[in-house]
Design a protein that fits this description.
It is built from five helices and no strands. Helix 2 runs antiparallel to helix 4.
């Protein structure tokens, strides 16, 4: 597998889960299990695997990760960049699952709830 394929697979998995979350937010199997535990857990495991592999292969990043240039250098590796993107996928999905459960509990109208979920998927904090 190459980093582009890893990126495609993780994005496809997240997209399928998000579609389920938008369409079936009241189903606990979707918002309480699939999108809160199963998919984020699988993506987090992929993220961790890439990080451990890269650290074992190359050692810790030589760059100072407290500077923009240091982060840019660390993310120059496509695998590290794809793993970092997976980090976003995990957190956004966990937040989205929470939004879905809370919106159903609070009887937030479908349109507003769906808008928040789509914005969370596309722009993280904006949907939250």
């Amino acid at each position: 597998m190459n980093p582009q394929r890893f990126f495609e697979i993780t994005n496809a998995l997240a997209l399928v889960a998000w579609i389920g979350l938008v369409l079936f937010p009241a189903r606990r199997i979707v918002s309480g299990l699939l999108c809160a535990v199963v998919v984020p857990g699988a993506l987090a495991a992929c993220y961790a695997a890439v990080l451990v592999w890269k650290i074992l292969e190359q050692g810790p990043p030589p760059e100072n990760l407290t500077t923009l240039s240091g982060l840019r250098g660390a993310f120059a590796d496509d695998w590290v960049f794809a793993a970092a993107w997976t980090h976003y996928l995990v957190f956004d999905m966990v937040v989205g699952a929470w939004i879905a459960r809370d919106a159903v509990r609070l009887a937030i109208p479908w349109m507003l709830r769906s808008l928040c979920l789509v914005l969370t998927f596309l722009a993280g904090p904006v949907g939250f």
